[in-house]
Each structure stands twice: as C-alpha cells, then as structure tokens.
Amino acid sequence: MSLHPPPPAAWSQPMQPPAYNAVHPRTTMQSASPPAPADMAPKKVDWPPAVRQYVRRAFDPANAIAGISQADMQERLKDTIGYFAERKSTDTIHWPTFPLPQQLLADERSKAAPGVHPNGFSHDLQPTPVNGADERTNPQSKKRKSQDAAELQAEQTQASVPPWRKTNLASRMTYAQGHHDKRHKKNAPDAASKFDQAELDKRRQRFQLGNNNNTKTTPPWGSPRKDEDEVPAGPVVGTNQSLEKSYFRLTAPPKAETVRPLHILKKTLVRLAEKWKAEKNYNYICNQFKSLRQDLTVQHIKNAFTVKVYETHARISLEKGDLGEYNQCQTQLKALYAQNLGGNPAEFKAYRILYFVYTCNKTDMNDMLAELTLADKSHEVIKHALDVRSSLALGNYHKFFRLYLEAQNMGAYLMDMFIERERLNALANISRGYLVVSLRFLTDELGFDNDETCREFIESHGGQNIVEDKGDHQYRVKVREAASQFDSLRAAAFSKVDIKGQI
Amino acid sequence: MQVALEPFYEAYASGLSVPVAEFLSPIAPAHNPGRLYDFYRASNDDKLEGDVRYALKYNKSTRMTNRESGAWVDILSGYWRAVKEIIKADEAANQGRLGERQYVAVYDAWKDLTSTFIKHMSSGLLPTWAIFTLYFTANHLRKIAIRADEQLSKSKSAAPTTGYSDDIVSTGPQNQKLEEAARVFNRIFALCLGDRNPDMADSRKWGVYCIANLQFKTYFKLKAISLSKNVVRSIEAQSDLPAFGLYPRAHRVTYKYYLGVLSFLQEDYKKAESSLQEAWETCWSPSQQNKSLILTYLIPCRLITQHQVPTAALLAEAPRLERYFGPLVSCIKRGDLTGFDKALADGEPEFVRRRIFLTLERSRDIALRNLLRKVYLAGGFEDLKEGQSEKDRIRKSRVPLAHFAAALRMGGQVVEDDEVECLLANQIYKGLMKGYISREHAMVVLNKKGAFPNTGI
Description:
Chain A is mostly helical. Chain A is built from 26 helices and 3 strands. Chain A has a 3-stranded antiparallel sheet.
C-alpha cells in the first residue's frame, strides 16, 4: 500500500551528495576527451588545479606533435600523473612548465631512435620513464622527501581536499562502484539518482517543474546534458584565487572559477578580520562575509572553519547591532553546533538567551530553557545570561545593571539593545517607590558612567524640571513628579520590539 | 464476508457513531482479540470489493440506498486494506523484524481510508452522524502518524548520517507524517464548518469543536501552537454555529481548555482564567486526569491575576498537582524566598515542559510580599496617645529599611542594601505594597491604612 515503491538499492542509499564523479571541470575539451582521468579516479580523485590545467594542455590540439598518437600520449599522461600522485608529490612539480607527455615521448623517441642510448637500457626504462623527467626538471624532488616536506604535503593535501572527500571516502567509493556500470550504460551521468525519491518529489513540487504527466515521462533530470555550462549537481570545487569577492545572490549554479577553495577562504577570513579591525567598514565587511558564506555553502564545506566564519560574522554584526544578519548566523550556528564541529556553543547560547530577553518572546524563551542542560547552566557566560533573564523577570533592576556592567564578549552589545528600555522600566519603578533621590543614586542604580549622562537621560525622557541643583555638586531628583511620564514611556518601549533591526 | 461484517450491521443499525467507529478501529476489541484477523481472512486483494459489495447488497438487516452502500463499500474496503497492513506490521513486530517503513505503510493505508471517508462525507452520501465516526477515524490517524514518525526518526538515526544537504543547515522534517495528517484534519474541519445545510439537526457543524480539538492536539504535538489561532479565529468568525452550550460536554470542556492554554501562552491571563474556569466548571467531576490538566494552568493563572494560592484540599486531590505546586505554595505562604527559589529550580524541567515556568516564576512577588508583610506585622503598634482607646491602635507605619534587609537575609537571601530598596520599589510599583521609601531616613513609610492591599491589613 505504500505510495512510494521501495527505491532500487542503488538509489536508496545516500541522502548525502555522494560521489562527486569526475573531478575535472566540465569544459569542451574534457567532455570530448576519453576518460583517461576517470580511470584513475578510484586511486585519487582530486587533482590540484595546476594538474588539471596540465591535462588540458596535453589534450589541446595546438600542442599535438605529429607522429605521436593520442593513445600514446594518454598512456604517458596517465603514467606521469600517476607517478607523482602515488608519491603524493603532485604539489612539488611546477606543472605549467612541466613538459607535456607528447614532448616527453618525442624526446625519448628521438634519443632512442639512433639506438645508441648511453646506458643501453633505454627500453627497460620505458615503463617508468618519468624518473628521468623527474630528476631533470625537479632535481631537488628527492631531497624534498624529507620529513618537513612530508609534513608540508600533508598540510597541503589537507588544505586542498574538501572535507566531504576525506570523511566520506569509504562510502563514496562503494557507491561509485555500485554505480559504475549503470553510469556507463546510461551514458548520461544521472546526477539526480543519488537523491532519495521522496526528496526529489518534494523538490519537484517546490519548483513546480512541469505538470504531472510531463514529469512522469521525461523527468527534468533524466534528460541528457547538452549544456556545456551545466555543473554537476554535486558540490562545486572552487578555483578562484582572489581573497576578496563581492556578494552576489546566486541565480544559477555557481561556476568553479568564481568560487574560492577552502585554503583561499581561510586566508580570506584572516584578511577580513584584519580589515574589520583597521577600517570598521561594516557594509563592506558584511558583504564580504556573505560571499564567504556562500562559497562555503556551494562547496558543502561544513567543518570547524565554517563554524568560525559564522561565529566571526555573528560577532561583527552584533557589534554593529545588525540583528538581521546576526539572526541568520545564529540559525546556522545552532545547526552546526548540533553536529559537534567545535566552536563556542556556550557563548552563542548565551547570546540567544539575551536575544530572547530583548524580543520578550516567552514561547521561544521557554523552548530555550527546555534545551539547556545542567552543564550549560553552570557555564559562566550562560549563567550570566540566565541571571540577566531572571533579574528582569523579578524586577531586580539593581542586579540587572550590575550584570550589564559585567557582560562578557559581545553580550554587552546585545544588552545595549534593551538597556534604554530597562532604564525606563527601572526609572518608572523608582519614581513610584521614592519621592526624592540623589542624582548619584540614579547614576549608580541605572548603570550610567557618570552623573552627566544620567541627567541627560532623565531630562530627555520627560524629566526636564525634576533635577534640582543643591549646590556643591549635589543634585536631587524629584522622581515622583515625573512618574506618569516615565510610566508611559516605559509602556511604549515595551510595546514595540524591532526584531529585524537591519541596518 | 457476510459473517465478518455482522458487527458492522449491528452498529450501523443503531444509528450511532460510536459503535460504527468501534468497528472501524485499528485495534481489536478486548473481548474478541482475533477480530481484525478474522476480518482480514474474510477476503483477499482480488475479491475484496466484490465481496464487500455482495455482502452489503444481500444483507437484510440494514437498509441503505444503493449510493450509500457504494460509499460504505469504499470505506470498508479501505479499512480492510489498512487492517492488512496492521496485521503485517504486528506479525513483523512479533517476529522482531519490523521493517523500516512498516508503520508508514499502515499510516498510508489509514490515510487512504480517512480520505475516502472525507470524500463520501462531503458528497453527502453518508448519514450525518458519520461525521463523528470520521472523527474517530481521524484520531486514529493522528496516533498512527505519531507512531510512523517515531519509526522514521529511529531508522534515520540508525543510518549513518553524514548530513550533507544542499544547505549548511539541513531541515529534515521531524514529524513528516503528523504534519501530513494535520492537513487532513484541516480538510475535515473545513468540511464541518462550511456545511450549508440549513437544517441544524442534520448539519455537520456539530463536528466543528471536536475536530478543532483534534487540530489543537496535533499542533501542540507539532510545536506549531500558533497555528491553533487560525482555528479559533475561523470558529469565532462563523456566526451561524449552534449555541455553544448545546454541544456535547466533552467537546466544550476540551475546547475551552485549549482556548485557555492558548491565552495563557500569550500571557493574556485574564482571558485564560475565564476560559479555564469554564472548562473546570463544566468538567465531569470524576475525570481526574482532565481536571488536573486544567488546574495545571488555572493555578498559575490565579496566582498572577488574583494572587490566590490553591487550598491544600484541592492539591491533595491529585498527586501530580501536589508534586507540582505543593512546595511552591507552602513557600509562598511562609514568605520563604530561598525555599521558593529551590522549589522552582527543582521543578524547572517539568514546569518548562508544561510551559508554566516563566509564569510561576512571577509568583515570587507574592512570596516576597508575604515576607514584607510579616516584618510589618512584627513591628507592632504605635504607642497610645492621650484619649485613644485600644480600638484606635495603629500599626507602626515607619519601618526601617534595615528591618526588611534583615528579614531577607534571615531567610537566606544574599542581598545588598540597594538591592533591598530595589525589591521594595518593585513591590510598590506593582501595587503589592503601599507607601514610599525615604533614603534620607533609611525608612519605608507605609500607608496607614491598607499597606498591603487585599491581605486584610
């Protein structure tokens, strides 16, 4: 009776984007070329951009050498790259100047042709001819196989291997094998088949693609690809090297050239943080962060670095009081923390509590409280936020302004959002509870820096004539006289909460 | 098939919704645990509709028109298919090899049954009382959906979740089936509310409140409480419903209860109190479970609106209420702030779950008021002046701040002097205490009459 027939085994497996099939970007050259790299795919799939560039050059008809067949060239290309890949030293080669396979072949043949090879075993050398090339072009390469070189390589592979590659390798391989035959048969890489059928249905509904009978016969994803620009449905792997990039809302799948890979993005974050410190140009920084986040999202990068990006952006937007942007980051962070990717979950939980204090949203606050564990509650910053909440709930403004002065991290910026409201609240309380108080008392109780700012606050909120100069720097405030003023201002302040707060 | 449908004929002949609903149940009755199985054995996939049609046609005891019997054929066939899935699922569960989508299959079959029912209901082929039978069917759908969601979430967490969705944040629906069911309920609700039949005796409008209650229940479970407001709004906008008092008591009590809780959550305690009060008064007295549910919200309401604590006798009626409110209430009465804080912290997980924590927290004011009042009473009376009699004695209305501070500290509170003033100013502002604070004299000057309103002094 199930509405959805059980999907075929190969489909049912991954909800996750699994195999990112061929790694080469789809260019005219590549789609026409025989799948030399694809054969190597099981060994190591991700090639640095330089290598890919090299392969492209090899296939470029302009570089073809007469007398050397395409098949020979491919064979050699495969050997060459395979050789370095096996030793994980593709990074040590300067690919743009490295001789093309056809050149290597031509060189060898011209040497071998006279039959007077100096060593006399030129033919034995054939299977591993790259040795010679290696030494010739890159004499230090042997020395570089020292410990620090290995470390460097490890670092670099780490930087260049996107996270889903590393973590998901095993499942990806099995999937790729299971999928292999099918892909060949079908000829058109069925990118969509990796999604759950239900997901697809939902997606189709979302985009309202076609009417019912139409979608049944020719599903949009089933049609063979003709468009060269079309990017595989898997994550893009960026090749863009620029550190700064403006944000544009995507209306089409991103192109690899416009997307920056992880190791560039890491530098970008450092650069942005420095710029923010130096220039404090919020509009620019916010824009940059949005493009940074976009690059992460389209490449499906989800790791500690992602958390760091969102945290940094959230903090900066808090500093500027841009709650709209902050909220976006906060939503993402909540989900990222749920996957235990590191970061500072406690700090941001505290912000969320303070944020709900600001919005006066009892339902959300209740849900928030329900979420907190005992460990959370004993955490210093969360405890501070909870104390802020309870002090306000119980009308303990004395304690509240104490806590305001003790706020950590960006908490003070968040509290700034509602500090005026709470000052009015406290003032309304005091004006009913006392007849006369000293200005100094108000300054202390309301958490002002000095008497002057306190006085300004009172006078700009309906208390123009209630501050009395007693001489000798003694001021008295006849609070009761402005009680109804304070009260109505307080009510007004609580009635409207601007939660968007976009700049 | 004729034999298997015998209970249905009996139920149908009664012209009541409940017996028919009992026949169309996903659970076999206790007195006949094999009934589902017998019913399933009475037919098979190929012959099903023919069997049912034949049985209904040649059965003498029920008289229905051809078109009506056609509708029942659809419904009974749908029921048979659902029963098939239930039996499959049960057998699989007994053998400990419950498939991932087993309950989803039950859910799908039951949803088909419900949809068929709705279809024939809206085309007017079925007698009006069947709307309540439909309610029971829908309620079963709700339970099955919850179960299917549980199974789905379990099987998902068992599978390795790599979680690389299109977005950084994956928003997989947690309660997919129940959300789907909620949409089905919405259709039933519209079907009831929108009945244009002028003859009220024959109107589906009688089903409005029980379906609304079903929707509330679903939305609360889905944590989409705000959707309930739409239901309330459309009921309040419908002017031609029968008088509320004419509806069955069960519908009224549940509806008012949910109405009260909704107002409670929007912090409209006045409205919440009146709705809950009505539910409380209408509630069938032996129904302990319902009564304590109502009181769970009515008691915090009363604390806020009238500063009233429940009597010990009322709390004693239900152990759950006693556990919830007993410690808090005794601390409030004693003016024991430290004890109050502890009781609140102890009960926090439960209170938060019931969404009453933030409201209960506010009753700390009353505990504080009671403590301050004690200080005031302990201050004693002014000396008698000349010509005054015992009757004219007045209490000392000037109380040193230090006294209040001492009382708070004796109770175990760690407070600074300024904080004490702050708490007092708060009490005055909220109208729990009348008077003013004089910083110059470090005194609180209380009203000579009614220093603590509504407490008898």
